[in-house]
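Changelog-adjacent note: as of this version, every example in the card shows the full chain rather than a window. The one below runs 374 residues end to end.
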Amino acid sequence: MLDQIFEYLKQNTEEVYQLTLEDTSILSKLNQHPENIFDFIIRVQGKRVFVLIDEIQYLDNPSNFLKLLFDKYSGEIKIIATGSSAFYIDRKFKDSLAGRKRLFDLYTLDLEEFLYFRTGSNDLVIELERIRTNEMYISTRRNELNNYFVEYLTYGGYPAVVLANGRDKKNDVLKELSGSFLKRDISESNIQDQNKFYQLLIVLAQQTGSLVNTNELSRLLSLSVTAVENYLYVLQKCFYISLMRPFYKNIRKELTKMPMVYFHDLGFRNILLNQFLPPDQRLDKGMLIENYAYTRLRNLYGNDQLRFWRTADGNEIDFIHVRSPEKGEAIEIKFNEKGYNPAKYRKFLEAYPEYTMSCRAFVAQDNKQSLLAL
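Full-length structure tokens:
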């Protein structure tokens, strides 16, 4: 991402420098004093300089570093900083930097970005947009899009994996990336039992779209509930998983009831399960497409606006998009649209008449119910 920003700024004739704090010589100088940054950049009279800093969390006090430079030099330099671990960033940033920053969560490639990376063209991205915005549109490239969609569901959105040629190479790159990310994050977050941490990840992958019961996980993994909760916190902060809360008008119930788990990248989940069969050949195909639906809705609305609905007697809806306290939409995900029975959700619509109800399916006859068109 920083490389792309660097090239973009260069093409627009901006003054730009790129630093990585994995370089210990740079890290040491910046830890001594924030103004040592001027040992690595040249200020230009009358022109703002862009400084791209990777792995900002490695600084001893990154919040103080950014605050001082903003307060003294905001007219001269613009800093774009990235960090690979929100867990570490939370621990290191002791100041909120209110009014001095804008935060962005960067996930792996979404489907549109995947199509661009995979083909080197926007043609299929434009075709996908037509499908999504016109229920009556009949695409002559639907089969081609479906094939790429299956690839995305299988290998996910890590750029290096997307650009790798062939299934074996994609598997190798995905295995290497996931292993190195886990090793780094386990080390930086001081996980005491690496094997139990990894076992927890596999259990969560097997239970995608299911309730996360910390007491049950504690018994299964022979861990304390506190340890399970800590591991779940780390997994969220390192952007492996997300926990989605249940839908209640009573906010207190939302916060106390068990959440559901989803993975941020489908390829990462698949490598944990060592499962790379096409969706229609998989026993977990329902979990797979439901997890895709989560990532799509997360990108559209943000995790804070997503909920699920479940009652004690077994009634359930996969996703509730809460547009406002009084309005929203309920979305049920099916592998095949033939499995959708609107009458099954009458109880929800009677309780919440201001909400709409729809279904999205991997196998669907038209754009209105197609998961691809979501």
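Structural remarks: Strands lie at 15-20, 49-54, 77-82, 241-244, 260-263, 306-310, 316-324, 327-336, 355-363.
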